[in-house]
Amino acid sequence: MRPAEALERIAYLLERGREAPYRVRAFRNAAATIKELSDAELSARAAAGRLRDLPGIGEKTEVVVLEALAGTVPGYLRELEGNLDPAEDERAKAIRAALTGDCHMHSDWSDGGSPILEMAVAARQVGHSWVALTDHSPRLTVAKGLSPERLRRQLEVVKELNLELAPFRILTGIEVDILDDGSLDQEDGLLRELDVVVASVHSKLRQESEGMTARMLAAIANPHTNILGHCTGRLVVGRGRPESTFDAERVFAACAEHNVAVEINSRPERLDPPKRLLALARALGCTFCIDTDAHAPGQLEWQTYGCDRAATCDVPLERIVNAKTADEFLAWAHAK
């Protein structure tokens, strides 16, 4: 394994394990520094003990480089590979094997940590043939939500990248805020141009049930909405955050009526909806989308968590929209 390859793999696994971003950047920056050197120069610096003279090379990254140059898999990399989650059960494996894409992913255009191209390449590497780019909408300023002008520029970038990546496809999309009155936080004309719209509540999560229900129902009925994102808004790690309260039967019945998929959000701190609500949505005839909500390349592997929950709650494969090919998915999305 080449030193830069080892450093990049460590960064990827740290992202997958939800480690602090500064730790990920340390290994990624070290990899970028190493790539600037020829093999001969890198070996000469290592032999002279001058690796740490390079920008971004510290004690840990130096050890990784030296071990890789010696022809061994670096110990830290072996440790991280050994800590990967055990394989999911057979039903979950079958669901994951059937998934062809991911409908919820962020780039550094909003609050993600990596460029669109890196996210797309990582999606291809985990076995997908397509991925939807769904950066945030304008109101979420803390996440650098995209103004109409920035979203239009992003659409042009995606068009160019699709020429480069074909036959892999990046679908155009957005994670749009559901506003207080249930309207969507982006221009109607722009939403009409997109391949997929994930509508999510990010504000006033403690709103009383009647108001939250009305807000969600209005968003679900909107002709541009394809997927209802992380419906309860809960967080289940750290200090956590309780579920938003709403009339789940009415909301999920509306999703079934309006051809809106209920997202099974795979982020370890969300795992949303809870299993009791996932089972209710299944019973009410909803379709589903198993998404990672990834903000970094390593997080695209989190889909297995959502597959586990779908298997536990007996979600039929034929009701999972991202088990479709890109063309089939687009036909489903545009049918609304």
What are the main properties of this structure?
single chain, 336 residues, alpha/beta, DNA polymerase, domain 1, TIM Barrel, 2 domains, 14 helices, 45% helix, 9% strand
Helix-strand topology string: HHHHHHEHEHEHEHEHEHEHH
Report the total helices.
Answer: 14
Helix content: 40-55%
Order of the strands making up the biggest sheet: 1-2-3-4-5-6-7
Number of domains: 2
Distance between the termini: 48 Å
Quick one: CATH class of the largest domain?
Alpha Beta
DSSP strand tally: 7
Q: Biggest sheet, open or closed, and with what strands and sense?
A: 7 strands, parallel
CATH topology of the largest domain: TIM Barrel
List the helices and strands and how they pair.
Elements: H1 3-16, H2 21-35, H3 39-47, H4 59-69, H5 75-82, H6 90-98, E1 101-102, H7 116-125, E2 130-133, H8 148-165, E3 169-177, H9 188-193, E4 196-200, H10 209-221, E5 227-228, H11 248-257, E6 261-265, H12 275-283, E7 288-291, H13 303-312, H14 326-335
Parallel strand pairs: 1-2, 2-3, 3-4, 4-5, 5-6, 6-7
Helix pairs in contact: 1-2, 1-4, 1-5, 6-13, 10-11
Describe the structure concisely.
This protein has 14 helices and seven strands.
Written overview of the protein:
The protein is an alpha/beta fold. It has 2 domains: 3-82, DNA polymerase, domain 1 (Orthogonal Bundle), CATH 1.10.150; 90-335, TIM Barrel (Alpha-Beta Barrel). The protein has 14 helices and 7 strands. The protein has a 7-stranded parallel beta sheet with strand order 1-2-3-4-5-6-7. α1 packs antiparallel against α2 and α10 (209-221) runs parallel beside α11. The protein is elongated. The model has no long low-confidence stretch (mean pLDDT 95).
